[in-house]
Amino acid sequence: MRFLRNTISVALLISLHPGCTQRAADAGGSHRADADGYRQITSNGGAYRVRYRPRPQPIPMNAPFALDVEIEPISKDAGRAGGAERSDVMLNVDADMPEHGHGMNTKPIITRTGPGRFTVGGLLFHMPGYWEVYLDITRDNRTERAQFDVTLE
Questions:
Q1: I need a labelling partner for 11 at 20 to 30 A (CA). Which of 100, 112, 113, 141 fits?
Q2: What pairing do the DSSP bridges indicate for beta strands 65-73 and 48-55?
Q3: Torsion angles phi and psi, residue 46, rounded to 5
């Protein structure tokens, strides 16, 4: 049984895009970039739709890069997902190499560029391997995480 589970996991990993890949928990998102270079994921609790675009693309190893991030609250009442809900979200960003037990050597610099829009600079992946990027969205003292994976070769 363990062998079968590990075989299925390896097959799933092989089938994913080798650049910015997506965790199974982000099944509601898309790891393919749109015409503007954005990828879309849904936060883990389902409250936010997050679009992100790395600059430059692909993400370089041992060189600075940035993320453009757009956050939209997902509401049962579609009319409520407007500017007021976007303007009061806050964003915190971090990244980690869980297989190595460490994160980045730099601290992200987050700049609000509009309602629900941010530029995150100062990101740097200093070594190859599997990275997880965490986008923690806070609104009304409640934080929800969206995350995506990057594998650098």
A1: 100
A2: antiparallel
A3: 85, 10
